[in-house]
Specification:
This protein is mostly helical. It has helices spanning about 1-15, 20-95, 105-115, 125-130, 140-180, 185-190, 210-220, 225-265. The protein has one domain (about 70-265). It is rod-shaped and about 105 Å long. This is DUF6090 family protein.
C-alpha cells in the first residue's frame, strides 16, 4: 500500500501537478493519522478487554476468600464461645456459694480455657491485588473503598485477638492457672484430632489418684484469700476477653456478609 502511494506521488511530481501533489500528500497524512488512531483505539479496546477479564477474576477470587473468611470467623466465634462457657462453668459454684468447687469438671473446664486459637485471615486475592498494584483494576470506586476498609478492619481485629492471646492468655492467665489450678486438656486433644480417620486420644497423663491429690492441693492453695482473689479475677478476665472477641467477630461477620452482597451487585 505504501509503495502504491509513493508511486502516485512520483507520477504527480513528474507531470508537474504540484497542487494536486500537495493535496494528495495532505490526504495521505490524514489517512495515516486515521490509521494510527484506529490502531490505538483497537489497542485500547483490547487492553480494556484484558483488564475487564482480570478485574472479573479478582472479584471472583475475592468472593471465594470472603466465603472462606466467613467460615474462619464462625470457627473463631465457636471457640471463643466455648471458652466463655467453660469460664462460667468454672465460676458457677463460686457465684452460687462463694467457694470454688475444685473437682474433675473444674479441671476439664480449666484445661479448655487455658487454650487459645489464632484467628485466621485467608485473603490471598487481596494481598496479590495490593502487592501487584492491580487495585486500580477495580473500576467501582465505592466498592474499592469498602474493600480496602474491610481488610484494614480485618487486620485490626486480627491484631487485637493475637495481642490478647499473647499478652494476656499466654503471659498472664496460663501461668496463673498452672500455679493455682489443675488442668485436664484431654477433651481438647480429642477435638483437635476429631476429623482424622485414625482415632487419637490424649487421656490425662495423671492417674485418678494423683489427679484427686492435686485437686486437693489446688483447693487448699486457693483457700488463701490473695490467691483466691488473683485466680477469680483471672477467670473473670478470661471470660471477658472471650466475650470481647465474640462481639468483634460477630460485627465483622455482618460486614463480611454485606461485602459479599456488594460483590453480587458489582
Amino acid at each position: 500500500m505504501i509503495k502504491i502511494f509513493r508511486k502516485i506521488r512520483y507520477n504527480l511530481m513528474e507531470t508537474g501537478k504540484t497542487g494536486k501533489y500537495f493535496k494528495y500528500a495532505i490526504g495521505e497524512i490524514i489517512l495515516v493519522m486515521i490509521g494510527i488512531l484506529l490502531a490505538l483505539q483497537v489497542n485500547n479496546w483490547n487492553n480494556n478487554r484484558i483488564d475487564a477479564k482480570r478485574e472479573a477474576n479478582y472479584i471472583k477470587n475475592i468472593e471465594r476468600d470472603l466465603n472462606n473468611q466467613l467460615k474462619a470467623i464462625q470457627t473463631q466465634i465457636d471457640f471463643e464461645a466455648e471458652v466463655a462457657d467453660n469460664c462460667k462453668l468454672a465460676l458457677k459454684s463460686y457465684n452460687d456459694t462463694n467457694a470454688l468447687k475444685i473437682d474433675s469438671t473444674f479441671a476439664v473446664a480449666l484445661g479448655s480455657i487455658s487454650t487459645r486459637r489464632t484467628f485466621l485471615n485467608p485473603n490471598p486475592a487481596y494481598i496479590e491485588l495490593i502487592s501487584s498494584g492491580n487495585i486500580e483494576l477495580l473500576k467501582n470506586e465505592t466498592f474499592k473503598d469498602k474493600l480496602i476498609n474491610y481488610y484494614e478492619e480485618l487486620e485490626r481485629i486480627e491484631k487485637v485477638i493475637d495481642g490478647n492471646n499473647s499478652l494476656y492468655t499466654d503471659q498472664e492467665f496460663i501461668p496463673t492457672a498452672l500455679k493455682f489450678g489443675v488442668m485436664d486438656a484431654s477433651e481438647d486433644w480429642k477435638n483437635i484430632f476429631r476429623s482424622y480417620r485414625r482415632q487419637y486420644s490424649s487421656p490425662n497423663p495423671l492417674t485418678k489418684e494423683n489427679m484427686k491429690r492435686l485437686l486437693g492441693i489446688s483447693a487448699r492453695v486457693l483457700q488463701n484469700e490473695e490467691n483466691e482473689l488473683l485466680f477469680i479475677n483471672h477467670l473473670a478476665s478470661r471470660e471477658g476477653y472471650a466475650m470481647v472477641h465474640i462481639l468483634l467477630l460477630t460485627e465483622f461477620k455482618i460486614q463480611t456478609q454485606k461485602l459479599l452482597e456488594a460483590i453480587k451487585d458489582y
